[in-house]
Design brief:
Largest sheet: 12 strands, antiparallel
Number of strands: 15
Number of helices: 4
Radius of gyration: 19 Å
Order of helices and strands: HEEEEHEEEEHEEEEEHEE
Shape: globular
Distance between the termini: 52 Å
Helix content: 10-25%
């Protein structure tokens, strides 16, 4: 008896020994020999070796408190041991970046995994327009190490220095250090308001030096309804 076909050849494991590498565009492979990592709770799909997982929730009392107050955060598990770990997030595309004493500000929904050497926290974004709705929050990742994010489809990286740049808050994945962000309120004029508006009331306006990463999809919650922001019910709920 034998199994015929190319299945086990075409989808053979990637032999890369890099700390973070793509098994394919939707599956991240992590070499645990380089030290502990943080991964999104529930993202493990397989592992080989001796790896242990500890659910840290929002990452400690301080972050848990911020998460409860702001509605923003990401539940993380700490992964330790030896072997190879495979993680994914609902078949989303996986993007890998390496920070070298740098930082990115990320939508918590898009965080997949990062090196334990990376410091992370929930932070309030200092933006004039955000203040009128009670605040806007994001997850900051800072230091030196690998970061993997999950995007709904292939993203586009926009150079904000090249032109005024605006994004739908539910489609913006992250921005790099050196980028400034403010909130723009665009009703489309009185006629648009009378007719119900365009639904694009709140936009994120970017400037400075660096990149903004935007995915070709807007965040949708578990019930299938679009998150707040399109309805104008509060910017503070855009990144939940």
């Amino acid at each position: 008896m034998a199994i015929h076909g190319t299945l086990f050849h075409d989808f053979r494991e990637n032999v890369s020994q890099d700390p973070f590498s793509l098994q394919n565009k939707k599956l991240l492979k992590i070499q645990m020999g380089y030290g502990p990592v943080w991964a999104k709770t529930g993202s493990m799909v397989a592992y080989q070796g001796d790896i242990r997982f500890e659910n840290k929730g929002a990452g400690g009392l301080g972050k848990m408190f911020k998460s409860a107050v702001t509605g923003e955060g990401v539940n993380m598990m700490q992964c330790t041991g030896q072997g190879e770990l495979f993680v994914a997030d609902d078949a989303a595309d996986v993007q890998i970046i390496y920070l070298e004493n740098d930082l990115v500000s990320v939508n918590g929904n898009n965080v997949l995994a990062f090196s334990a050497s990376i410091e992370w926290d929930i932070h309030r974004i200092q933006a004039r327009g955000a203040a009128m709705t009670g605040g806007l929050y994001n997850v900051s990742l800072r230091g030196t190490g690998y970061v993997a994010i999950a995007t709904k489809g292939e993203p586009v990286a926009l150079d904000v220095a090249s032109a005024p740049t605006f994004g739908d808050a539910q489609a913006v994945v992250l921005w790099t250090g050196g980028v400034t962000m403010d909130v723009r309120v665009d009703t489309g004029g009185l006629r648009s308001m009378v007719r119900g508006g365009t639904g694009e009331t709140f936009q994120m306006a970017f400037g400075g030096q660096g990149y903004v990463l935007v995915q070709p999809s807007e965040s949708v919650n578990a019930s299938g309804n679009q998150q707040a922001g399109k309805s104008g019910s509060g910017i503070g709920e855009l990144f939940s």
